[in-house]
Design brief:
26% strand, Phenylalanyl-tRNA Synthetase, Chain B, domain 1, globular, seven-stranded mixed β-sheet, alpha+beta, 27% helix, eleven-stranded mixed β-sheet, Phenylalanyl-tRNA Synthetase, Chain B, domain 3
Amino acid sequence: MPTISINRDLLFKALGKTYTEEEFDELCFKFGIELDEVTSDKQIILKEQGTERAVGASEDIIYKIDIPANRYDLLCLEGLVQGLRVFLGETQFPMLKAVQPVGNFQRLIIKSSTEKIRPHAVAAVLRNISFDQHTYSSFIDLQDKLHQNLCRKRSLVAIGTHDLDTVQGPFSYEALSPESIKFKPLNQTKEYTAAQLMDLYATDSHLRHYLPIIKDSPVYPVIKDSNGVVLSLPPIINGDHSKITLNTKNVFIECTATDLTKANIVLDTLVSMFSSYCQDAFTVEKCEVVNPEGLISTYPTLKYRHEIISVNKINRMVGIDETADKIADLLTRMCLSAKTDEDGQIKVEIPPTRHDIIHACDIYEDVAIAFGYNNITKTLPSTNTIASQSPLNKLTDQLRDQLAQAGFTEALTFSLCSKEDISEKLRKPLTSIPAVHVSNPKTLEFQVARSTLLPGLLKTIAANRNMPLPLKLFEVSDVVLKDNQRDVGARNCRNLCAVYYNKSPGFELVHGLMDRVMQLLEVPFDATGEAGYMLKPCDDETYFPGRCAQIIFGGAAVGSVGVLHPEVVTSFDLTLPCSAIELNIEPFL
C-alpha cells in the first residue's frame, strides 16, 4: 500500500475541523484507509539522514496515511480531503469538465519514430491556476506517487509538467539519437546532450533508477515546442526552460507512455485533483494529440460512465438488509453518485477519478466500507468444513522438532539472495542453476530467489562466528526453481539443510544426522537406492573432492552430503572447515 505524508494542520484546515489523533484514526478506518504513523519533519530527517541534517527542521506534525493501492485519487491532500468531506456529507462530489479552449487547441504531434521506444502520449492544460508553496509541493508529490505506483517507476508512464507561457505550440514528440538531443535539464546551469545526461545522473539517488528504461536504446524520446525548445526527455528529466514555479499560471501537462490506458488514468487523476485551483474550478482545457497516421484525438477524456446494480444482490453479497435509497446514499458518500430507478435498481455514476471501479463487485465493496464492516451482522457460514494440516507442513514441523533435539539450532534466512551467493561463492556457473531472477531488484543482495538453503546458513554462521564453537545450524524451508511445466514458470521445493562448523569438519556428525532423519522417515538403507536410500560418490564443485556423495532415493538423487570446499568456506568469510547436508524432503511424503 502506498503511504502519503500530510501536514496535520493543513489537513485539518482543509477539512474545516480539528480532530484528536484517536478521532482521526477512527475516521480513517471508517473510510477504508489507515493512519499508519504520527511523526514530524524533524523526526523523519533525523531517522533517514542523521542529526546534522535535522538541525532547524520543522516540528510540524506529519500524518503518514496508508492508501489502498488502487485509489489513485487519494494520493494527495486535495483528493484525500475531497473524499473525506464527501464521505462525511459536508459537500457533494464536483462535476469535472473537459472544455475546448477559447482560441486554438494546444497540439501535440507524435512522430512515427516514437514507436521504437514510447509510442503513446496524451496532454492537457490547466488554465489560470493559482499555486502557493503548499499546493505546489502537493502537485509535485502527487506526480512522484503516481510515478512510483501506477506508472511502475516511469516504465509505463512518465509525467511532464511545463509552464505553458514559456513555450510555443504546437509541440512535437519524436525519438532522436542521444547525441542530437541537447538542452539544459531541470535545475542545471549548462546544456548537455542526452548521452551525457546518462553519465551525469548515473550516481543521482533519485534519477539513476530510471536511466535503464531508455539507456540502451538507439533513440531517445524527446518533446519540443515549435521553436525547437526541449520540454522534456521522458522518462528521465524535464527541461529547465519550461519548469513550473509558484508564479506559473498556465500548466501544460504531457504524459508519454508504453500503455495508453495507463496514460489516460494518470492524466485524469492529475488534472482532476488540481483543477480545483483553476480560476474556473474543476475545468480542464483539452489538447489535441495527433498520432503518426494523422488521426486527431482530444485529451483529457474525463469520462463518466454508469453501472446498474441490483439491490438484492448487494444485500446478499455484503450481508446487509438495506433499502435502495439507503444504499444509494452510502454510495454517494463514497464519491459514486447513485440514484434509484422505477424498477428499484440503483444507477451508479462513476466519475473519472474512480478508475479502480472495474466491476460491480468494486461497487459492492464501497457499500460495505460506507456501511461499516463492524456494523455488518456476524453470521455462521451455511456450510462447515473440517480443516487439516498440509502433509508437507506437518512433516516439516516434525523434522524441525527432531533436528533441534539433535542439537542443531534453527535459522530462518531470506528467500532472496544475490546471484553470487548461489553461483560464484558455491563454485558453480550461474547458467547451470535453474534460478528465478528478480527483474528489478531493490539491492544487489536480493537479485534471485534462492535455489539452495546453503548460502543463507553459511552467511548466518559468518554473522555469528564469534559465538562458541561448534556452530550447528539447520533450516527446513522452500527453495524456488525454474520449471517450464508450471503455469508460472517456477515451482517451490521444500528442502532440509544442516551445516556443522568447527575446527574439524565433523562429517561424521552430519552423516549421523542424515541417518537419523532417514530413521525418522522410516526409510531403510538400501545398496540399490530403490527400496530405501543410498549414498553415491559424486563430483560436486561445492564440496571437497572425494568427500561428497549424492543421496539416492527411489532411483533419483534427492540431495547431497559432504565436506565443503575450502574456497566455498572462505568466500563466505569463514576460516574453519564445514560439513553440510541438503536434501529435498518432498519425495518422502
